[in-house]
Amino acid sequence: MSETSPFYLQGFLAPVADEVDYYDLPVTGALPYELNGCYARNGPNPLPGDDPGNWFLGAGMVHGVRLRAGKAEWYRNRWVRTNSFVEDAPYIRADYSIDLTAVPANTNVVACHGKAFALVEAGVPYEMTFGLDTVGPFDFGGRLKTAMTAHPKHDPVTEEMHFFGYGFRPPYLTYYRLSPEGELVESREIEVIGPTMMHDFAISSGHVVWMDLPVVFDVMTLSRTGMPYRWDDAYGARLGVMPMTEDAKVTWHDIDPCYIFHTANAYEDDSGRVVLNAIRYRPDAFKSVWTEIEGQYDPAASAAILGRAHLHRFVIDPANGVSEEQLDDLDIEFPTWNIDRTGDDNRYLYAVSVDGIVKYDHRNDSTEFYKVGRDQLPGEAVFVPSRHSRGEDEGWLISLVSGAEDTPSELLVLDARDLTFVASVQLPCRVPEGLHGSWLPYDEEQEAA
Ligand SMILES: [Fe+2]
């Protein structure tokens, strides 16, 4: 790869050329016997010779490691066969309508009512088998009329799933709610000032938290960067709080301009305030990261494309506006937590930095850290509870750790209680740095299929 190649085709981000299958993988340590499922992780991986013009536009490739009964049965990687991947279908058709299936489904892979979805915020979900084959686009029986965020939120109390879709044509923002049975039962347009890039949101026990931040739609940037979004100093920034009750209005509160790709949970405190933890980019940090996502190397920045943001807390008081506080000075991304605590005051939060995995204890205001090797970059650390867990951190963190160019990768399993090493699955190939992943637990029905 030449020095003039786009940043997203080099180093840890360099795509792999092939789909492969490897079986009976070597394991260091002892894989927990009860882990029965597949750790799957998505990320952009353009086809050989293809430069999509922007890291976020690379074709989605899902990497999976199948664990069962203390063994690592297989590793495989598969491109998500979307209509743009298979047929080169254009996102904007000749009649200017949008094809929500013509997307690189490259951002996340999540389990939802016995299905696995590959997600990207520009399009509809793509259903995948648990063996990582593409089934096809999924629109919840025709009820999903817009794109779907790659970061839906499951409410562990009501068993409902909340998500949204945004776009650069009206309706700019639509809220959706899925019943405990998996039926899309609510679609609600949310009024916003204009189209912005809205990557994530949050839920507390009774509210949805929206982020209207100054990365705005601008068609003029499309031809230059491949993405029609840019930072806008004049747009301002605001958080919106919306009660989950029918037809409730959003109350917007101004905050200092920033960008947030990822929230780190929200909850309601004893005073009725909504508390949002999030990974916050200062304007200069966002511009630097965005430049690299567009393909240009920023020599002032670190080696990783993400990891220039900080854990931040926003306390949204209906009467007094928003107070903000940076909780830590470590550069982090990809926040995760025990999702049984979504919407609640979770004690523990996990995230990754360029050289390791960090655990935050909000109650004790302390951190623990697991350092990876010098030529490694940790991926999102997904928390998997142990079967009979009582404590919030009783379980494991699973992270796909990328090696530098030509260096094999590994699936790392840590004890979430103290970040001690449990096991590592050695992969015979490298896995590029990517985006988000999930633990897809197998049940007997999927096993038979
Ligand atoms: Fe994300």
From TrEMBL:
GO terms for molecular function: carotenoid dioxygenase activity; metal ion binding. Binds 1 Fe(2+) ion per subunit. Keywords: Dioxygenase, Iron, Metal-binding, Oxidoreductase. It comes from Sinosporangium siamense. InterPro entries: Carotenoid_Oase. Belongs to the carotenoid oxygenase family. This is Dioxygenase. Fe cation binds at residues 151, 199, 262, 436.
